[in-house]
Write a structure and sequence with these properties.
Helix content: 10-25%
Strand order of the largest sheet: 1-28-27-26
Shape: globular
Radius of gyration: 23 Å
Structural class: mainly beta
Number of helices: 1
Distance between the termini: 67 Å
Number of strands: 28
C-alpha cells in the first residue's frame, strides 16, 4: 500500500458517476446522481462552483480541449452545454431518454450522445455539430441519429468514446459487447465480444494506441486500438466499474467493488472498495489503496501522472498524490524492463546472424 494522505473532496450528496481532468490538469470536473456537476481546482481540491440546471442524476460529462466548454448528460433526458468559467448554460439538447454518455470528438467539432430506452423510445445514438467559436450558432437537431444500435430489448448503453482520428465511435453496453459505429452514418461496423457482463467504462492511454475496458465480469482488458486485439487481461475478485492508464509508467489502476445495494451492511475491507494498481505488461497487482466506503465508480489519472482521483458510491472524491517511493520503484522497474528488451533484441540479432552465416556456409559447400 502506498503511504499517502489523500485530499477528500466533499461536494456531492449522492454517488459519483464520473471524474475527469481537463487537458492541462489544473481543473477537475465531477458529476453524480445529485444533479449538480462540480468544478474543482485540481491541485488544492478547492471547489470552484457547480453547474445548476439539470433536474435528474448527471451520468456523464466531457470538456473541450481548450477547457472553455463543458458538456453534461442527465437522467432528465437532456444534454446541456456550459461555459466553464462562469457556469452559464449556452444550449440544451433534448433527448428521448436518460443520457448515459456524451463525448466530444478529436478537434471538438462534433459530439455524441447516448440515450437509454424510455417508454416506447428505444436506445439511441446521436451526433451533433459543434461550433467551438460560437456554440450558440449550433443546431439542437442532431446531424445524424439512429436507433438501429444492435441492442436487444432491455439492454442499455454505458459509455461512448471516439476512436483515434475520429475513425469511429466506440460504445459499451450492459450485454458485455463493445460496438463500433461509423462516425458519419452511425452504421454498425464491428462488435467486440470479449466480456461476459456489463462493460462499465472505456479509457485510452496517453498516445491512444491502447484502450482498457472495465467490466462487471471481474476483469479489465487491454486492447490494441488499431487491431482491437486483446493484449492483456486483469482478473480480480470484484466487479470493476472503471480503469485508467498511468501517463508516466506501465501501470493501470482498477476500481469497483461489491454491488451498491449491499454496501450499507458491508465493511470497507470485505466490500473490496480499494483501488487496485497493476503492471500493464506483466499483469501483476502490486498495490491497493483503501479509503472509500462504497464501490469506486470512476477513476482518472492526472495528466502529469503524479496523482490520481477516484469517485465512489459513498459520495466522496478522493485525490491521491504518489510519494517518492512510488516513483523510485517505478523508475527502477522501467529501467529493468528496458534492459530486458535490449537483451532480447540483442539475442534475436545473434540468432538471425547465426542463421545467415549457416545458410552462407551451406551454399559454399554446394559450390
Amino acid at each position: 500500500r502506498f503511504p499517502q494522505r489523500p485530499i477528500l473532496l466533499k461536494g456531492h450528496e449522492r454517488p459519483l458517476t464520473m471524474v475527469k481532468y481537463n487537458r492541462d490538469g489544473d481543473l477537475l470536473f465531477t458529476c453524480s446522481k445529485d444533479a449538480r456537476p462540480t468544478l474543482w481546482h485540481a491541485h488544492s481540491g478547492e471547489r470552484v462552483g457547480t453547474y445548476e440546471g439539470h433536474n435528474g442524476a448527471v451520468h456523464t460529462l466531457d470538456v473541450t480541449w481548450d477547457s472553455k466548454y463543458l458538456l453534461t448528460g442527465s437522467a432528465d433526458s437532456s444534454a446541456m452545454l456550459w461555459l466553464v468559467e462562469n457556469g452559464t448554460c449556452l444550449a440544451k439538447y433534448s433527448q428521448s431518454g436518460s443520457v448515459k454518455s456524451v463525448a466530444f470528438n478529436h478537434g471538438d467539432t462534433r459530439f455524441v450522445a447516448l440515450t437509454d430506452p424510455f417508454a416506447a423510445n428505444p436506445a439511441s445514438i446521436s451526433v451533433y455539430e459543434f461550433d467551438k467559436e460560437d456554440p450558440t450558432r449550433g443546431s439542437s437537431t442532431p446531424l445524424v441519429s439512429t436507433t438501429d444500435t444492435g441492442l436487444v430489448k432491455g439492454v442499455r448503453f454505458s459509455c461512448a468514446v471516439w476512436l483515434p482520428l475520429n475513425a469511429g465511435i466506440m460504445v459499451a453496453s450492459d450485454d458485455g459487447v463493445v460496438r463500433i459505429f461509423h462516425p458519419e452514418t452511425l452504421r454498425l461496423q464491428r462488435e467486440i465480444r470479449e466480456h461476459k457482463a456489463k462493460v462499465n467504462s472505456i479509457q485510452f492511454n496517453k498516445n491512444q494506441s491502447l484502450f482498457i475496458t472495465a467490466s462487471s465480469d471481474f476483469t479489465a482488458k487491454v486492447f490494441d486500438a488499431r487491431t482491437f486485439e486483446v493484449l492483456n487481461v486483469f482478473k480480480t475478485d470484484r466487479p470493476l466499474n472503471s480503469a485508467a492508464f498511468s501517463p508516466l509508467f506501465n501501470h493501470v489502476v482498477l476500481g469497483g467493488g461489491q454491488d451498491a445495494r449491499s454496501v450499507t451492511t458491508t465493511a470497507s475491507q470485505s466490500g473490496k472498495f480499494e483501488a487496485i494498481f497493476a503492471h500493464l505488461i506483466f499483469g501483476d497487482q502490486f498495490g491497493l489503496v483503501a479509503g472509500h466506503f462504497g464501490p469506486i465508480n470512476a477513476l482518472a489519472f492526472h495528466p502529469d501522472g503524479r496523482s490520481y482521483v477516484s469517485g465512489s458510491e459513498d459520495g466522496y472524491v478522493r485525490m491521491h498524490y504518489f510519494d517518492e517511493s512510488y516513483f523510485s520503484k517505478a523508475r527502477k522497474e522501467e529501467a529493468e524492463f528496458e534492459e530486458m528488451e535490449r537483451l532480447d533484441e540483442a539475442h534475436d540479432d545473434e540468432v538471425e546472424g547465426g542463421e545467415g552465416a549457416g545458410a552462407g556456409a551451406g551454399e559454399e559447400e554446394k559450390e
